């Protein structure tokens, strides 16, 4: 019914607009057309206003709808903006809520809670309050640096599987890297191992039909998350599942920044060397990561697998605390943005950020500036060359303000830097799929792991320091002298910040 109404509104707008521009229609007919056109546009703007989004976003879409006739409305509908708080993910949000209650029921307190500082305990409580995810002191993590560490380890664990393999990726390509994994999945499925695979409908457009068919024929259950559909108003292009999750036999999980394709091994001439980080997860926290996959699986396949077979795990003792946090349209809006903001505002000594795309909210920008003014060591590392014109120059458009207030900015030169990490005070950190950008905060389905006083935090610190050796610090005086063309590019790209 909703799509039918949207379709009728669009047709009415087009017809009204044509009549308004026509010289053959009399004044009375044109007046009716104007009335129809304005009533539809103003009613949409009114509904948009009632959703109580940020004034910036609300005004942006109102301007688009008002000042770009017909196309503005169609773009609004096509982008799925009405679905952010609407029916599309209503059931998924309900399933998430029910599972979070189950997580609370399973939680077992630990005496190791007192090993954390007061600010760390407060931050962990905030994570639980916002996401329903508890901290675990009986989990283990291992940092995998770059694709040449991740992919051999992943293949090794797949080949060891005896019960099930659950895999989910935003980008999965049908190149030599992707097909090596596909062949391994096919082989395990033929052995009788349950294999379930989710790929994003837009991010994995290069995953070929013949590879999907080959997996299905071998017994692999394959589903696309929000695929491109027939019918203009069926599209939900704006909502992408950016998660990268693998869980094998309930013993080991993989999560982080690396998708599947040859570029993630540094074998693509366009990108060259690819710097990224992935994480191996074991123990109690693996159950929380697995729930994220299972919730996505129940959405794409309408099959619930929340049983002991899939959720039983063996505790591991690493000494620190770990929390797994999903975010996206299926959770409370803006969770990851709130947590990133809190990490920055709670910092006492340092905030080290690595992200390929830096398009922050106003709140996060302000938090970074205040932290730097207070004398906290605030560092931002981004790639010198991005994988897109808009993302590169939109990121750079924020440099002037950050540099002015004392934020240190480093451009990674060795290759493309795709890692997503924040390290605070050298004691706790987050690593996952969420960039410091508005798309990750509000539109994408993401998942991050937050670590408190674990060996993996020390590893991330060491690797950050190594990456500085392949980076150049941006000098404020040199940056002020950049040419007019660069300034124009930055200003133009920044206009697209809300959708990047």
From TrEMBL:
HAMAP family: Cardiolipin_synth_Cls. InterPro entries: Cardiolipin_synth_Firmi, Cardiolipin_synthase, PLD-like_dom, PLipase_D/transphosphatidylase. It is found in: Cell membrane. The keyword Repeat applies. SUPFAM superfamilies: Phospholipase D/nuclease (SSF56024). Residues 237-264, 413-440 form the PLD phosphodiesterase domain. This is Cardiolipin synthase. Keywords: Cell membrane, Lipid biosynthesis, Lipid metabolism, Membrane, Phospholipid biosynthesis, Phospholipid metabolism, Repeat, Transferase, Transmembrane, Transmembrane helix. It comes from Pseudalkalibacillus berkeleyi.
């Amino acid at each position: 019914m909703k799509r039918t109404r949207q379709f009728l509104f669009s047709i009415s707008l087009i017809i009204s607009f044509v009549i308004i521009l026509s010289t053959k229609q009399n004044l009375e007919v044109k007046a009716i057309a104007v009335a129809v056109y304005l009533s539809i546009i103003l009613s949409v703007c009114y509904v948009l206003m009632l959703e109580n989004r940020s004034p910036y976003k609300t005004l942006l879409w109102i301007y688009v709808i008002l000042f770009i006739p017909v196309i503005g409305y169609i773009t609004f509908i096509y982008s799925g903006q009405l679905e952010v708080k609407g029916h599309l993910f209503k059931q998924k949000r309900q399933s998430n809520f029910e599972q979070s209650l189950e997580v609370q029921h399973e939680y077992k307190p630990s005496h190791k809670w007192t090993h954390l500082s007061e600010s760390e305990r407060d931050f962990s409580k905030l994570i639980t309050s916002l996401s329903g995810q508890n901290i675990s002191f009986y989990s283990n993590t291992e940092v995998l640096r770059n694709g040449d560490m991740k992919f051999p380890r992943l293949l090794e664990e797949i080949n060891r599987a005896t019960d099930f393999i659950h895999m989910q990726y935003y980008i999965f390509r049908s190149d030599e890297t992707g097909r090596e994994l596909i062949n391994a999945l096919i082989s395990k499925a033929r052995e009788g191992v349950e294999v379930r695979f989710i790929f994003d409908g837009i991010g994995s457009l290069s995953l070929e039909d013949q590879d999907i068919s080959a997996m299905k024929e071998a017994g692999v259950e394959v589903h696309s998350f929000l695929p491109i559909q027939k019918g203009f108003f069926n599209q939900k292009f704006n909502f992408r599942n950016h998660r990268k999750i693998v869980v094998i036999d309930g013993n080991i999980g993989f999560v982080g920044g690396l998708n599947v394709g040859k570029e993630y091994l540094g074998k693509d001439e366009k990108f060259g060397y690819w710097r990224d980080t992935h994480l191996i997860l074991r123990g109690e926290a693996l159950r929380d990561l697995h729930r994220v996959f299972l919730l996505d699986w129940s959405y794409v396949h309408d099959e619930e697998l929340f049983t002991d077979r899939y959720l039983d795990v063996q505790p591991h003792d690493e000494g620190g605390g770990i929390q797994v946090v999903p975010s996206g349209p299926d959770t409370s809006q803006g969770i990851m943005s709130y947590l990133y903001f809190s990490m920055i505002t709670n910092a006492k000594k340092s905030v080290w950020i690595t992200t390929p795309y830096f398009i922050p909210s106003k709140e996060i920008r302000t938090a970074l500036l205040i932290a730097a003014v207070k004398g906290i060591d605030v560092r931002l590392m981004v790639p010198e060359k991005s994988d897109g014109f808009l993302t590169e120059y939109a990121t750079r458009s924020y440099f002037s303000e950050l540099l002015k207030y004392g934020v240190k900015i480093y451009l990674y030169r060795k290759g493309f830097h795709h890692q997503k990490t924040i390290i605070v005070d050298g004691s706790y950190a987050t690593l996952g799929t969420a960039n410091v950008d508005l798309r990750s905060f509000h539109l994408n389905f993401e998942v991050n792991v937050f670590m408190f006083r674990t060996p993996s935090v020390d590893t991330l610190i060491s690797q950050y320091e190594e990456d500085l050796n392949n980076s150049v610090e941006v000098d404020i005086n040199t940056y002020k002298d950049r040419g007019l063309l660069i300034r124009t590019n930055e200003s133009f790209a920044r206009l697209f910040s809300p959708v990047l």
